[in-house]
Amino acid sequence: MQVHDATEDPAALRLAMAMADDTSRFFAGPNHGGVGLLYATPKQDPSHQGVSTMFEALLARTSLDIHRVTGIQGYLDHARASWAWMHHCLRHPAGVYFCELDIRPTVGGAPNPHLRIPIGGDRPGDIKRGGSVAYLGGAMAPLSAALWLQDGAPGYRAEVDSIIAGMLQPAIFLRPGDLFVNDRDAWSDGNYAPAFVADVLSLDGADPTGTWRRALAATALSIIRQRTPDGFYGPDWSGSDWSGSDWSGSDWSGPDWSGPDWSGPDWSGPEWDPRPNASRPGRPRAPPRAARTTAAPAWPRPTRCKPTPAAWRWRWRRRWRRAAQGGDRPLDAAGQAQQD
User: Fold this and answer.
1) What is the C-alpha separation between 247 and 257, in angstroms, rounded?
2) pLDDT, tens digit, for every residue of 144-184?
3) What is the pTM of this model?
4) For burial by CB atoms within 10 Å, which of 96, 117, 120, 305 has the most?
5) 339 CB-near residues (< 8 Å, 6+ apart)
């Protein structure tokens, strides 16, 4: 969608739509229950099954961009439903978000007592270098900001402010020197930084003190200084880890993840169904193959490629051969050009 926004190339839009649809079908879980896609298929990563992640916010953000261009309601429904399940199931008590959700209905043949509970929800303070139960990427903040601009619902904007405030807590992501902790790696954390700047920090009053901007700039410079002569980036840009209060102790005051504690707007409307062959709300199914027309597509057909140098040489050799044989004059029975 970024390519389409920059070039207005219809082929880029078609590829983005195909990617969103195919990703939803390919990673649909057999027991999705209205929340999340699989982190990986059994064939790709058999040891990491029964998990949905907040990385799905990126797909929801792309779906929202597709709706903005095409007006197809199904993509907007997808973005809203994705935001709803992540907000309901993955929200950290500090306002940020846990990374993974347990979606296994059974464990060892018995009902899973941790179904739809964040992985690490019992230790919310386990936020450290190289691994964290929460995710610094902040993918829910750009999605919330985009949905607020789309719908104008105040809950979306309140979520943006809550995420920013949570990220700036020393017990969460901010470390001495206004550095964000390297909870994973430069690629994972840096992947969402441009979206955060474009979608979140561009909102009026999103960062009134400028602390988030300073932390982002300081973190980026620290990552750059970690660059090795081989072009790699070191994994430790935030220095020694902070050792404040232990969130995993008895001070856990988050919501009861085992019960229906959701008390916000009613997001339990028509949920998006990611199962294969399930049509999204508002999107008509593709017509049967026999009923499809053969009319020319609405987009311009691609132009023919220019001949390669080898093709040009072949063309000139053919012309020389024809000229040596008499040009375009008709040939006789022996294959020679007839004489005038």
Assistant:
1) 16
2) 999 999 999 999 999 999 999 999 998 888 888 888 888 77
3) 0.68
4) 96
5) none
